[in-house]
Every structure is written in structure tokens, then in C-alpha cells.
């Protein structure tokens, strides 16, 4: 089904179809041959849904857009196809055939034979029916394991390529500033270094599979006032530079991301979608980004309807194009006729259209979409009878054993044991009370951008497409000799108190009570976590706290298990639960991971990527605060968390000792090297997460009390000892100074080697000497860790 179409009436056609020529020459020739309407057609997408019968895709009717007439649009070309797999349930093989047939039509209809670029969501796995539902990004952060996240992203990318998708709308690199925000589950955590390193690993994995990774949301979305979705962003230039921007900088510089998506929000009155200083000055001119900037869905139209900085669609198009947005998504609204008319009458320079077009066509050329042998049919359908769609059903498996094994690994590494009085691991209990609204709910492990929760809920008669064992199922397998009795007690958010007495009675008759609480993922108020599901306070939804408190009044030990999209204040449970197990929407293998921690089959190694608050009303607050952001005598509100960023317990015990420092002083362009001994003093194998925090006692501008600048997972067998060596470049002490430039200042520093942000184990005091030194985006970004096994005595 080779769909490339020769352009016979254009002599330069051989240039853009010739893969032996430089991409710039091919793209220039193509742009020169295009009409204005053909140019603008490459700058927008059309939202479609693949056909479950293998026919062409059908335009998706969204309540924010008018109906699309493909017959009218396609003769001038089409830039993108929006979410062919993430719009309706479709068998992957038939969806791939549907997309291939549509691409054939697109290429055959426009006179240059240019296909569309197809994008889809992949926030927690490819958001397609039947694809593996991995843990949400907040769980990726809890692993503190970039290598595993990189492998997961590569698997996601391979599945997307297998069905003909080119671009993935992930990762989210927003740094959590207020845990009330509904999209916390989509973030990696509250620390920019953790977000940057885990996010960069995800980009590397996705890009290694040939998928264009899209960084979002650039920038400030997570810093919205009061944690409200799309509210104005309340940050100053220094917080923006030192907290919100570094993950994007790292993912571009080290990850090789080829696309960036703007944030919806405005910062100090400037919407990101119209911010030339951000999207062109910083992103391109300073950082050197040469990929495409794509609009978050409807963001360009929002410049008129929500932000009020444009009087009409042409004004919105001009503002976004001038700022540096190359592609309008998800549909044609402003970059179609309004843009073309404004260019034709001189209101918008055609040079801006050509600038965006050059980036779009360059990306298409690099993806092979302009090559003469381009074929829309993916390799997964090679040899298949494409004229017999029914025979294709089930041919492509997007949730095979390797995927599920990888999903389980991520989920297991992400489970965080917050507290434990010795009750865990459970010692073969005879009677288990399994209580709470998430005790036997299959979708309790899924985030709002998983296919079942995002799209499947609109198709109630359609099977889930993946196996989702409940915690009841996995506990029955983990404890085959135990009698498990289930009582919900209350719903997620219905406030129903009528079942709490029954739950308490069930608990009284058991050896242990497992109360499974948390969230239901959804969109725009249909859940308690997810996009548009913001919280007024960090109290457990509905009557869950009442259920928990009632169970704590019983004599039976209570183990609190959380399947949630954000951290919650747990009241009495912090001190009175026998144990607390935190999991952030751990994906389809999540209940296996939790059951393994409860039984002791798995030794927990997850660490908190966000602080767990002690009280529900202390937001916004993160560990990454200056002195006045922490507890003080001048306020009666104490924001000290119940469990700090980086916290997590193990079933073994680690001893830290023998810190040595190679030199107490180093110049501002130098480095420090430390070494210490880490020993597993317990009776079972385990993983310690060594965290490196920097404290700057005196600086020219106010600094956080401490900030994470490095980490490493260290695996140790019982009795095993390793000498851990850490090299810390002076560049890691840099911050944005008074003049807006990043500076390394001379002076004393504390380097804290810690088990969490609240648990320093060893501290080195060192001094930077010499003159102030300004650094930029080429500075060193990482400490380096080395591990050497110490021979046993």
C-alpha cells in the first residue's frame, strides 16, 4: 500500500522526494512550490477516531469544535491526525489498518503526496484500547530509577510505532507546587531534579523507539493559584528559572526531545501560548531547541476566548505564530482560513508561516514521510491480507507478557512503605478484613489518562481490553490459606456512612484489617483525581477519613493502603495505623505489587516523590522551600509534613558510616568528592536510595533550605557493604542571582547524604573559593556516583 504520490507538474518534485539530499534542501524546495493554503494546511491537525472495521478514520466531534469536512480539507494537505487510537475503542490491528488507509488517502489527495503525522497520548502507557496501562508518572518518580523508566518508555514507543503513530504527548515535566491540583498524578514529583532526571529518561526511551516525545506543559501550569486547573500561574522569574524550567532544559539537552507543548496558563498576565520570550527567546535562541512547538488542545483559540488578548481567530493565530507555536492542535480553528486570510491581506507576515512550516516539514522528512518508498502500513501488518479486516483482529498484541512484567517492575519499585510497627510483612494471617472503597475495584489502579478511565468510561458495553486484577484477587493468590472478607464501608466520594458499622464489625473478627482508600481517576469533576479534578483541601475524599478513624478505634491492627493520585493528610492514621502503604495509581500490575509488599515477597524500595501533609490545609507547600516557608514562631500553621519528600521504609536496615572528603575546598569551577560506607545490617536483601541534598547557608538571594542534587539506588544483600563515592560539581550550587543570571558563588556549603529530605545521615561541610562564576544551560547537571563492593571481614 505504498501511498507516495509523484507531483508530475512540479519540476522540483524530485528534490523533496530525494532522501540523498540534505533535509534543508528538500524542505526549501517543497516550501517554494506550495501555495499559501497548502502551507497552512501543514500547521494544523484533525481529531479523528480509527475504525474498528479497518475503514478510514472518522472525524471526532468535540463540543469545543465545529464539524470537520475531510473532503474539503484534504486537497491542500493535512499536518496531523489527532489521537486515532485514543478516541474510541478499536482493535489495534484494525486501528493500524484504518490509519494506513487514511494516510493513503491523505497522501493521494494532496498534490505533494505528504501524509499526516499521527500523534496520541502516552502519559501512563499508550492510551489505546488493549495497550498496557503502566503506573502513572508520580509512581515513576517514586522509583527513583531512571533506567527502569527508560526501558518502560522504549516499550511504550515500540507499541506506538507498531500501529503507525509518530508522536507521543508525554512526558509531563510540571513540578508540583500545590498538591491540591488535580493533575498531580500526571507529574513526577515536587523536586525539579527528580522530575528532570526521570522525565529525561522517559524521553530517551520514547525517542529510542522512533517516537517524537513532547514535553509539557511549558511552563508554569502546575503553579496555578490555589491548585485550580488553568488558573493564573503565581510565580516570579526566579522560581520559574530555578524550579519550573530545569526539567525542560535537561530533557531537551540530554533527552533529545523533538517537540514541546505550551502550558494553558498565563504568568503575570502573559499566556504561554503568546510568550515569544519563552517559546522563541529561551527555548530556541538560548537552549537551541530545533523541533516543533505544538499547541495544547485549543490553546490558541483560548487566547481569544479565555485570555482575551486577541479580538478574533486571526489575532489569536498571529499571536501564537509570532510567539513560536508551529502546530495547532487538536483541530483546525485558527491556523486554517483565519490565518490564510490574515496573511493574504498583510496582517500576518507569510515569513512566520514559512518558519513554522519549515520545522514541521523538517520533522516529517526526518521521519521518512517525504521519502519515495514511504509506506503507511506498519511492519506488524506485513504479509497480512489487508482486504480481509476480520482476519486481522487480534493480530497485534499491545499488552504482551514482556510489557506486563515491565509494568510490574515499575509498580513494585514505586510502592512506598510510609510506616510500619512490625505488622508488615504479614505473617500468614488466618482472617483478613479487606475494607474500603478501593478494596475490590479493578480500575482503582488507573490514572485519568489510562484508556479505560479516559475513553472507556464513555463506552460502558466495551470490555476493558486488559486484565485488571483487584487487590482482593491478588491477596487471595498471595495468601491462599487466609479467609478474606470484604466490606466497602463507604464510597470514594459519596459521603455514605451507612456501611461503616459493618466494616468495623468485619475488622473486629479478623487478624488484620487492610483498609484500601484513595481516589477515582477521572476528568473535569468526574473523579477525585485527574485533569479538572482539583481538591479544596488534602482531606481524603468523601467519608473515607470517618471510615479510617472508626477502624482505628477497633483492637484489630489496621494497615492503611492508599491507591491515589495525590498525597492526602491521614489524620490519626499517621500515628495509629499499624502500617501505611502508599501507591500512586500503580497500573495494571499494581495490585500484584501491593500484595507482594504486604506479604513480604517484595522488599519495598519506593520513596516519596511528594511530601505527605500532616494537615489537610497547609497547601501550597513543598519541601523545596526557603526558611520562612517552613515552621516558624510567626505563624500558627505548621506545614511540616507527616512524611517528607524522599521518605520510604524497607524490611531491612541500612547503616551509613565512614564519610570522607577528598578536599574541603574547591574553586567555583571545580568539584568535591565524597565517599562513605553503606551496609545492609538486616536479614534480607534490600535497596537503599541514597539522596544528595545541598544546603547553602548564605547566598545573595533567598535559597531553599535544601534541594536535591543527586541520588542513586544501591542494592545490598544481607550483611553486604559497599563503598559509595560521589563527585559533586560546583555547578550544582548555581542559582539565579540578583541580575537574573545563573551564578556559582564562593562560600560555605553543606552536602547532606540522606535517606530522605528529613533524614540526613552524613553531612560534609565544604567551601567554594575564588570569584563568582556565571554559568548557563551548558553547565554540568549531575553528581556522579560510583559503588564498590567491600570484602567481608
UniProtKB/TrEMBL annotation:
It comes from the Bacteria. Residues 688-757 form the Fibronectin type III-like domain. The keyword Ribonucleoprotein does not apply. It holds the Pfam family Glyco_hydro_3. One of its GO terms (molecular function) is hydrolase activity. Keywords: Hydrolase. Belongs to the glycosyl hydrolase 3 family. This is Glycoside hydrolase family 3 N-terminal domain-containing protein.
Amino acid at each position: 500500500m505504498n501511498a507516495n504520490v509523484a507531483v508530475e507538474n512540479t519540476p522540483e518534485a524530485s528534490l523533496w522526494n530525494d532522501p540523498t539530499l540534505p533535509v534543508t534542501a528538500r524542505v526549501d524546495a517543497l516550501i517554494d512550490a506550495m501555495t499559501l493554503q497548502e502551507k497552512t494546511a501543514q500547521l494544523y491537525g484533525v481529531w479523528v477516531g480509527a475504525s474498528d472495521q479497518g475503514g478510514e478514520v472518522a472525524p471526532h466531534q468535540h463540543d469545543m469544535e465545529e464539524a470537520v469536512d475531510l473532503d474539503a480539507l484534504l486537497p491542500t494537505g493535512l499536518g496531523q491526525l489527532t489521537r486515532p487510537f485514543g478516541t474510541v475503542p478499536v482493535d489495534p490491528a484494525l486501528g493500524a489498518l484504518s490509519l494506513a488507509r487514511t494516510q493513503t488517502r491523505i497522501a493521494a489527495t494532496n498534490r505533494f503526496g505528504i501524509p499526516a503525522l499521527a500523534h496520541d497520548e502516552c502519559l501512563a502507557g499508550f492510551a489505546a484500547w488493549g495497550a498496557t496501562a503502566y503506573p502513572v508518572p508520580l509512581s515513576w518518580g517514586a522509583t527513583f530509577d531512571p533506567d527502569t523508566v527508560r526501558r518502560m518508555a522504549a516499550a511504550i514507543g515500540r507499541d506506538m510505532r507498531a500501529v503507525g503513530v509518530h508522536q507521543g504527548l508525554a512526558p509531563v515535566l510540571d513540578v508540583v507546587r500545590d498538591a491540591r491540583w488535580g493533575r498531580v498524578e500526571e507529574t513526577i514529583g515536587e523536586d525539579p531534579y527528580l522530575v528532570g532526571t526521570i522525565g529525561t529518561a522517559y524521553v530517551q526511551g520514547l525517542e529510542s523507539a522512533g517516537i517524537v516525545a513532547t514535553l509539557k506543559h511549558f511552563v508554569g501550569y502546575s503553579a496555578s493559584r490555589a491548585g485550580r486547573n488553568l488558573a493564573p500561574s503565581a510565580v516570579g522569574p526566579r522560581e520559574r528559572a530555578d524550579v519550573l524550567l530545569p526539567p525542560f532544559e535537561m530533557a531537551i539537552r540530554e533527552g533529545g526531545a523533538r517537540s514541546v507543548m505550551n502550558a494553558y496558563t498565563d504568568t503575570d498576565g502573559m499566556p504561554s501560548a503568546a510568550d515569544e520570550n519563552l517559546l522563541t527567546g529561551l527555548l530556541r535562541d538560548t537552549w537551541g531547541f530545533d523541533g516543533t512547538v505544538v499547541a495544547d488542545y485549543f490553546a490558541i483559540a483560548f487566547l481569544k476566548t479565555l485570555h482575551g488578548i486577541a479580538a478574533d481567530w486571526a489575532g489569536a493565530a498571529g499571536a501564537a505564530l509570532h510567539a513560536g507555536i508551529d502546530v495547532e492542535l487538536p483541530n483546525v480553528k485558527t491556523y486554517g482560513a483565519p490565518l490564510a486570510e490574515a496573511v493574504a491581506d498583510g496582517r500576518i507576515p507569510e515569513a512566520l508561516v514559512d518558519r513554522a512550516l519549515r520545522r514541521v516539514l523538517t520533522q516529517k522528512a526526518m521521519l521518512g514521510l517525504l521519502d519515495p518508498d514511504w509506506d503507511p502500513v506498519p511492519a506488524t501488518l506485513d504479509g497480512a491480507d489487508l482486504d480481509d479486516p476480520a482476519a486481522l483482529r487480534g493480530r497485534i498484541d499491545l499488552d504482551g507478557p514482556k510489557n506486563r512484567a515491565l509494568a510490574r517492575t515499575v509498580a513494585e519499585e514505586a510502592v512506598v512503605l510510609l510506616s510500619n510497627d512490625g505488622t508488615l510483612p504479614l505473617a500468614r494471617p488466618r482472617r483478613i478484613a479487606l475494607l474500603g472503597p478501593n478494596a475490590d475495584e479493578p480500575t482503582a489502579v488507573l490514572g485519568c489518562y489510562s484508556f479505560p478511565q479516559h475513553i472507556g468510561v464513555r463506552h460502558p458495553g466495551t470490555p476493558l481490553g486488559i486484565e485488571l486484577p483487584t487487590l482482593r484477587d491478588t491477596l487471595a493468590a498471595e495468601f491462599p490459606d487466609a479467609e478474606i472478607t470484604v466490606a466497602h464501608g463507604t464510597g470514594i466520594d459519596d459521603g455514605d456512612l451507612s456501611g461503616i458499622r459493618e466494616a468495623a464489625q468485619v475488622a473486629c473478627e479478623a487478624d488484620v484489617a487492610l483498609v484500601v482508600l484513595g481516589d477515582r481517576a477521572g476528568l473535569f469533576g468526574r473523579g477525585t483525581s485527574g485533569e479538572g479534578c482539583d481538591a479544596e483541601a488534602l482531606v481524603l475524599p468523601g467519608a473515607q477519613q470517618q471510615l479510617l478513624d472508626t477502624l482505628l478505634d477497633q483492637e484489630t491492627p489496621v494497615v492503611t493502603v492508599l491507591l491515589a493520585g495525590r498525597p492526602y493528610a491521614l489524620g490519626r492514621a499517621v500515628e495509629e495505623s499499624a502500617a501505611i502503604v502508599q501507591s500512586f495509581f500503580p497500573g495494571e500490575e499494581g495490585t500484584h505489587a501491593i500484595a507482594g509488599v504486604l506479604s513480604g515477597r517484595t522488599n519495598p524500595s519506593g520513596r516519596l516523590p511528594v511530601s505527605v501533609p500532616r494537615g489537610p490545609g497547609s497547601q501550597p507547600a513543598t519541601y523545596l522551600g526557603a526558611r520562612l516557608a517552613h515552621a516558624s514562631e510567626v505563624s500558627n500553621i505548621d506545614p511540616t509534613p507527616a512524611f517528607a519528600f524522599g521518605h520510604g521504609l524497607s524490611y531491612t536496615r541500612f547503616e551509613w558510616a565512614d564519610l570522607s572528603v577528598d578536599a574541603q575546598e574547591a574553586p567555583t569551577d571545580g568539584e568535591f568528592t565524597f565517599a562513605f560506607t553503606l551496609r545492609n545490617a538486616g536479614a534480607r536483601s534490600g535497596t537503599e536510595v541514597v539522596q544528595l541534598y545541598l544546603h547553602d547557608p548564605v547566598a545573595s538571594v533567598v535559597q531553599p533550605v535544601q534541594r536535591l542534587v543527586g541520588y542513586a539506588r544501591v542494592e545490598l544483600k544481607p550483611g553486604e557493604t559497599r563503598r559509595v563515592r560521589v563527585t559533586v560539581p560546583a555547578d550544582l550550587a548555581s542559582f539565579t542571582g540578583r541580575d537574573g543570571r545563573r551564578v556559582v558563588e564562593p562560600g560555605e556549603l553543606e552536602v547532606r547524604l540522606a535517606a530522605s529530605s528529613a533524614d540526613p545521615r552524613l553531612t560534609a561541610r565544604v567551601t567554594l573559593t575564588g570569584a563568582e562564576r556565571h554559568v548557563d544551560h551548558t553547565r554540568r547537571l549531575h553528581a556522579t556516583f560510583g559503588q564498590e563492593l567491600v570484602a567481608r571481614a
